[in-house]
């Protein structure tokens, strides 16, 4: 079992020349970058003498737990992809951490990042999950990253729903390729919450095969520059936005016309036509002959002929047939 310790650093040829002119403890205090990738390291030991460490490369090892990094309050970049890590923990003291690389591990739940207020990039692609398992997100972690996270990579993690990610309103680069995203309406709703989005990759998802997939996302993401590796032409975007606006305006107009109420019978009582037949009642021919509309005083004063008056009153077709008879 290989442990990353001060002794291992001392034995490393990468640091041999740098030690000349300085004692080893003095050198460790000046150390800012530590390269120990592909060394079969399984555990992180006591590195507290490297108090000014800012970048730590530990990718392509056999590490199972993140530990003993509490001293590294100046750490800004941590590369631990392609290890055997199952949980994200022991990072709360890394207040300056801005880029975290954890792709290719065995992480099932994204959690333990609540204290990382400076985190701008989070890379979690290609987790080696159990069959049927998908990458999940702790709502507390997402909420804590809402104001800081600019880049999120969750490629190939069996994810079928990203609605919980809507709180990440500062995202500029989003990669979720080779997942199981399929609901276009849900995707559009999430992307409406990301006004800063510039680049996005959803290739390899079922949603990509939906009609008008690319057109719909371009109209939703107003500042998007690259979608699935293809640049977006600004003229194309404006055309699609104008076309969508025109289509919605036409739909709204049609709905307004459909909802316009019909004027009930009788049309008006301004002429005081007297007691007439009820439009919902069936009348015999004899009864219709007895009923004769009487001209009102107002109609008489206006000298409107009775025949002309009837032309201004809407009479149901059923009644008209009787009258014609």
Automatic annotation (TrEMBL):
<dbReference type="InterPro" id="IPR050836">
    <property type="entry name" value="SDS22/Internalin_LRR"/>
</dbReference>
<keyword id="KW-0677">Repeat</keyword>
<dbReference type="InterPro" id="IPR001611">
    <property type="entry name" value="Leu-rich_rpt"/>
</dbReference>
<protein>
    <submittedName>
        <fullName>Protein phosphatase 1 regulatory subunit 42</fullName>
    </submittedName>
</protein>
<dbReference type="InterPro" id="IPR032675">
    <property type="entry name" value="LRR_dom_sf"/>
</dbReference>
<keyword id="KW-0433">Leucine-rich repeat</keyword>
<dbReference type="Pfam" id="PF13855">
    <property type="entry name" value="LRR_8"/>
</dbReference>
């Amino acid at each position: 079992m290989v442990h990353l310790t001060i002794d291992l650093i001392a034995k490393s040829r990468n640091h041999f020349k740098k030690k000349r002119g300085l004692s080893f403890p003095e050198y460790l205090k000046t150390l800012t970058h530590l390269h120990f990738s592909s060394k079969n390291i399984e555990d992180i030991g006591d590195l507290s003498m490297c108090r000014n460490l800012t970048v730590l490369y530990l990718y392509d090892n056999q590490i199972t737990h993140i530990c003993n990094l509490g001293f590294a309050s100046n750490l800004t970049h941590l590369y631990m992809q392609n290890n055997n890590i199952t949980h994200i923990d022991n990072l709360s003291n890394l207040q300056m951490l801005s880029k975290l690389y954890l792709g290719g591990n065995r992480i099932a739940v994204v959690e333990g990042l609540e204290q990382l207020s400076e985190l701008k990039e989070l890379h979690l692609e290609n987790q080696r999950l159990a069959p049927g398992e998908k990458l999940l997100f702790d709502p507390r972690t997402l909420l804590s990253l809402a104001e800081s996270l600019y880049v999120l990579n969750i490629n190939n993690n069996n994810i079928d729903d990203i609605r919980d990610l809507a709180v990440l309103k500062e995202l500029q680069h989003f990669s979720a390729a080779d997942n199981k995203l399929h609901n276009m309406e849900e995707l559009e709703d999430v992307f409406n919450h990301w006004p800063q989005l510039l680049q996005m990759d959803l290739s390899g998802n079922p949603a990509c095969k939906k009609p008008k997939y690319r057109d719909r996302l371009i109209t939703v993401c107003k500042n998007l520059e690259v979608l699935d590796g293809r640049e977006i032409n600004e003229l194309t975007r404006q055309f699609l936005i104008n076309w969508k606006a025109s289509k919605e305006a036409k739909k709204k107009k049609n709905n307004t016309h459909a909802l316009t109420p019909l004027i009930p019978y009788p049309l008006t009582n301004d002429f005081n036509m007297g007691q007439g037949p009820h439009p919902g009642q069936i009348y015999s021919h004899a009864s219709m002959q007895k009923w004769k509309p009487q001209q009102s005083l107002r109609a008489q004063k206006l000298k409107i002929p009775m025949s002309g008056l009837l032309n201004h009153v809407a009479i149901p077709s059923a009644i008209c047939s009787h009258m014609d008879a």
